[in-house]
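Provenance and format

Records in this collection were gathered into a single text stream. Each protein contributes a sequence line and a token line. The two records reproduced below are adjacent in the stream.
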Amino acid sequence: MEKIEIPLAQMTLAQKLDLMEMLWADLSKQSLDSPDWHESLLAEREAALLDGLCTFSDWEEAKQRIRQNVSCK
């Protein structure tokens, strides 16, 4: 298959977002199977959650924590 060159540096943000949406719409029509390791990883994480070894955060709280940890100094 021939590689397609797309002039991303010359595209506007709106054009890039349109392209991304078109690609996602096309990809989402296909059946994509997750790799086998996804199932085992999810099972491990669910077990850790049920055993009280980890917790999860509300998305807004997580974003705030990320911003605090990644802020430029």
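Adjacent record:
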Amino acid sequence: MTNNLFILGSPRKDGNSETMAKAVAEGLLKTKNNSVEFIHLHGLHISPCLGCGGCSKTGECIIKDDMTELYDKSDLANRIFFVSPVYFYAMSAQIKAYIDRCQARWSRKYLLGIQYRPESQRTGHLLSCAATSGEKVFEGSVLTVKCLTDTLDLSYGLPLLIKKVDSKNALKNNPEKITACREFGEKIASGF
């Protein structure tokens, strides 16, 4: 069974990025042996990284909050989809808190020399939508997720990036883009 974990970083429930994620999941589930789990970060208590260096000794974060369970889920997932709208050419604060707390995984890998699943074919994918059509609107998010996937022993997989999605139901009201999201999920599930 391929475990697909969607980390939803939008503070808006049922907004465009969540609509995107659900359509991708529909595509994934057309292929047998795929499971899907959605984590809504906006409902969790994830403190910001303190930069204290505590994780440099053990590879574990000293803060005990909802992130503790997400470390395990992130370690066990075969595919992780990092889902975020673009705010000021960057990812949302909710997903950035999750990413910053992955410093513990960076310490585990780069300071302590522990790779969790380096032999596996795990992948990480950025799913993002933006209101504008700026040429570099996704650049910051792409660089961040590339760094994150390396830290989590994931290969950076194909991203799905959609521009000109602004109002709350803009994606739901665009059948062509919804179809593209489903087809993206099918492509990922098939191993393209």
